[in-house]
Each structure stands twice: as C-alpha cells, then as structure tokens.
Amino acid sequence: MSDASLPEGLHMRPATLADVEQAVCVMNSSEIEYCGEPETTENLLRRTWSQAARKPEENARVIVTPEDEIVASVDTRNKRHIKIDVELDVLPAYRGQVELPLMRWVEERAQAHIALAPEDAQVLLGSWAYQHDTQRQQLWKDLGFELVRYFWTMKRELTQAPEQPQLAPGIRLRTFKELQKEAPQGEERLARALFAAHEEAFSDHWGYIPNIYEEWRQYHLGKEADLSLFFLAMDGEEIVAYARCADEGQQGGWVYTLGVRRAWRRQGQALALLHHAFGEFYQRGTRTIRLGVDAQSLTGATRLYECAGMQVERRSAKFEKVLRPGRNMRTLSLNQA
C-alpha cells in the first residue's frame, strides 16, 4: 500500500518480533488513558506473535517515523477465515491521522481470508472500543461496523485469604503441569482431552467458532505458558472443568479462560476453580485478579463471577462489519450449541 495517504514522514511497514517493546508501549497508551494502568505485557504480545498462525510480518502492520519509532499498529487474527479480529492502537498525538490507512490494509488483507473461507460462509471483521472512547466508537461506525455486544473486565482485590474451594463429591483439582510430570508419555493424550473439554465448554458461548487443535495447543500449552496455573477439575480420569490462569506481574493475575463441560454444570465446579485460583494467586503474593466476560453471557457467567466477589471494573463495546454475506457459522444462541 502507498504511504501517500499518511502524514508526511510516516511510513507503514510489516511488524516483526523486534517491534514487541515499542508496540506494547503504543497499546499501553490507550490502556493507561481509559483504564488508569497498562494491561498488555511484552510477554503476552511476544507469545502471541510467536505463534505460527500469528506471524506479525503477515498479520500486522506498524506506522513509523523516519527514526523507525512506532506511532500506531494494527494486528489481525483470523478464526477459520470467517472472522478476522482487529486490534488497532494509536498514540494520542496521531489519532485521527493514521487509522484509515491501517484499516484499508486490514480490508485488503481480509480478501485472502475471504478466498479461503467456506463458499457459503459469512465473513466478518470484528473489533472493539472502550465504553468511554467515543472517538474510536465513531470510527468503527464511520467504517460500516455495527455495535453487536458489550463485554466487561471484572476484578477482585484479595485483601485477605480467599474462600476455600468447595468441591463436588469425587472431584479433584490438579494442574496440567502435575499431570504432565506424572505421565510424560501421555502428554499428547492429555492435551487433546483438554482441547476437547474446551471446545465442548465454549461451543455454547456467543460468537464461538471451532478452534484448530495445533494452533490452540501452541498458544495455551506452549513453552512460555505457566502450566502450574492451568487448573483442571477431574472426575476420575475425565476433565470436567478447567481454568487457564496467568500471572502477568504488575498487571496482576488473570483468569483467561474458565470452562465447565455441560454435564457437570450447576454443581459448583466453576466457583471452586475460581476460589482455588484465587488462593494460588494469594499464596504467590498476587492480590489483584481480573477476567473478561460477555456482559450478556448465554451461560450466566456474570452471575457466577459476582458470586465469587468480582466487580465490573470497565466496559467495552464489540463492533462487527460484514465483508461477505452468507451463512453465519458462529454460535449466537444456546439453541445452536
């Protein structure tokens, strides 16, 4: 793409792993403005861009000054070529000047995904904005996106040791790391069982699109993942629920994924996992715990998190744009699951 539409002196180029530090600074600028503190870490972005399916040279662009200082970035992630999620970040001094060229690149990049999507499938772009970021929300509307959903970030501050987990009869809590050490020859079987549990648990979440096992494993169970914070609720040898957590240092502890298989719901599995995770973070000296949730969760997750003592810290709006009409292949209601 030509740089003619960019302010004088700025240039667009592919992102690389060497850009992680600068790219995170750009992302943090909006997080500090709207959240009061940075949220994205270098470790998180490096782990993301290290995935084979997320190569920044192919899926991300940065806008730089003549000194190669990054002032804006856009990153894309596709789910089976039918949904392309967009993360757009711009330093405050450059807002309103560089977004349109970046989004033109995104739509050009999306054409490759449209060609690979099932012939009858609807293909979408998706992105988001903080609730109070009216400038970004207006940008999405001007580009033809529609507001489709709200999401919350919820938080709990641990001022004292949290509640002890109350496990259902016959359920034991283990970590992936423990099971991995006990039976290293069975690690692949364990990983596939966990993947199957995840796909079942999330198949009735709004917007669900089936994952690809190899991509899922590389990100969730790769060498940089702390598998001692990947908690599994076991009924004998069967995984019935799990919580994937991470200690993000100054950003606190995160419960990135919490899932319960259908047959084991309404038995306190999720609450027990949350309390167990809180306890582990507390023992490690981490006092702030966060997670993200669909504000209109089909499975009632918001009520669970409120019962666990979590409160809404901030709200964001989800936007989507249809690039190609067709059959919507995502979960939109429990009747589809």
Automatic annotation (TrEMBL):
It comes from the Bacteria. Residues 171-330 form the N-acetyltransferase domain. Keywords: Acyltransferase, Transferase. GO terms for molecular function: acyltransferase activity, transferring groups other than amino-acyl groups. Pfam families: Acetyltransf_1. PROSITE patterns: GNAT (PS51186). This is GCN5-related N-acetyltransferase. It comes from Ktedonobacter racemifer DSM 44963. The lineage of its organism: Bacteria, Bacillati, Chloroflexota, Ktedonobacteria, Ktedonobacterales.
